[in-house]
Design a protein that fits this description.
Oligomer: single chain
Order of helices and strands: HEHEHEHEHEHEHHEEEHHHHH
Number of helices: 13
Radius of gyration: 18 Å
CATH class: Alpha Beta
CATH superfamily: Aldolase class I
Strand content: 5-15%
Distance between the termini: 9 Å
CATH architecture: Alpha-Beta Barrel
Helix content: 25-40%
CATH topology: TIM Barrel
């Protein structure tokens, strides 16, 4: 994993302090960037493939990346749909490798071996592969050792529905045996989909049991699991950007888009009265949807939370690797 300029770490630290002093999460540290809505799958718990929003061209996407690079955002996740379906994906990956943030790349493509993943892996800091019943690609658990050759920071990403909870343990066990991580997230009830949410308590118990049985494998933080069950709300320290470069704010669940990040500086917008009002709405939200990104981010923005969240990586951090 590469080092970023000291100025970037300084900006992140200053933003963390500003958030703490203000008593609200003004500045985000994680951004999910939707590169495309195109997808080969029709997961019953997902509505992304239903969206018809035109996606940005290469130059437009680069402007968004420049904006994020100049912000407090430390980790950007390339998502979709399926990012590999963009014809310019290599150019975007190479461009991103020079930006001031770490890149997490999410894919659910069944035939990854048909893509130059070894080459792409040079530009990716963290490779996440979505494998679950919804994507109908459970056979990919057999290929984890191959995928790990493309990127040593490999992580399986699996969505759990109310029907899939009994299947969770064998998935975690397989990752444990292959020496890769797994992030477990519940199926959030989205617009135009059925409700497959597994239930907060049942989901938490299944995850905690798997974490205890297979140490340092499940990276979904304990604090995230507990937040789902104790009424703690989500956080605006994480943002989602749509394929047209517009910011979902305060959150993706509400489908409300505001600033166009191809034209508007992210930090300038976040300090506006409009953004402040949206954050108030987010803090008062009663949906408690369980969206992993919004509920888990606080685990990485407090000292106690970071200690817990980095537990699966401590061996890696303190080793020569």
């Amino acid at each position: 994993m590469r080092y970023l300029p000291v100025s970037k770490y300084t900006r992140v630290a200053r933003s963390l302090l500003d958030n703490k002093m203000s008593g609200e999460d003004i500045y985000p540290f994680y951004a999910s960037l939707k590169l495309t809505n195109r997808c080969r799958f029709r997961c019953k718990f997902c509505n992304v493939w239903m969206e018809k929003t035109p996606e940005l061209n290469t130059d437009g996407m680069k402007r968004v990346l420049d904006n994020l690079s100049d912000s407090s955002v430390l980790l950007v996740s390339f998502e979709g749909g399926e990012p590999l379906l963009r014809k310019d994906i290599r150019e975007i990956l190479e461009y991103t490798s020079h930006k001031n943030f770490y890149l997490l790349f999410c894919t659910s493509e069944r035939k990854l071996e048909n893509y130059p993943m070894e080459n792409y892996g040079k530009y990716i800091d963290f490779l996440h592969i979505s494998i679950d019943e919804g994507h109908e690609n459970l056979f990919m658990f057999d290929n984890l050792e191959l995928y790990r050759k493309w990127n040593s920071n490999l992580c399986v990403q699996t969505v759990v529905t109310l029907d899939d909870i009994p299947e969770l343990e064998w998935k975690v066990k397989r990752c444990y045996e292959a020496g890769v991580k797994i992030v477990v997230m519940p199926a959030v009830h989205l617009n135009k989909t059925g409700n497959y949410f597994p239930g907060t308590e049942r989901f938490m118990i299944a995850c905690l049991e798997a974490k205890a049985k297979y140490p340092n494998t499940v990276i979904s933080p304990d604090t995230y699991l507990k937040n789902l069950n104790n009424g703690v709300g989500c956080s605006s320290s994480s943002i989602i950007i749509d394929v047209d470069g517009k910011l979902f704010y305060p959150c993706r669940k509400l489908d409300n888009k505001t600033a166009d990040l191809t034209r508007t500086d992210l930090h300038t917008y976040l300090k506006s009265d409009e953004a402040k009002d949206y954050r108030r709405q987010m803090a008062a939200c009663t949906h408690h949807c369980g969206w992993y990104q919004y509920f888990a981010t606080p685990s990485f923005t407090t000292f106690s939370g970071i200690f817990d969240a980095l537990k699966p990586y401590r061996k890696y951090i303190f080793s020569r690797g």
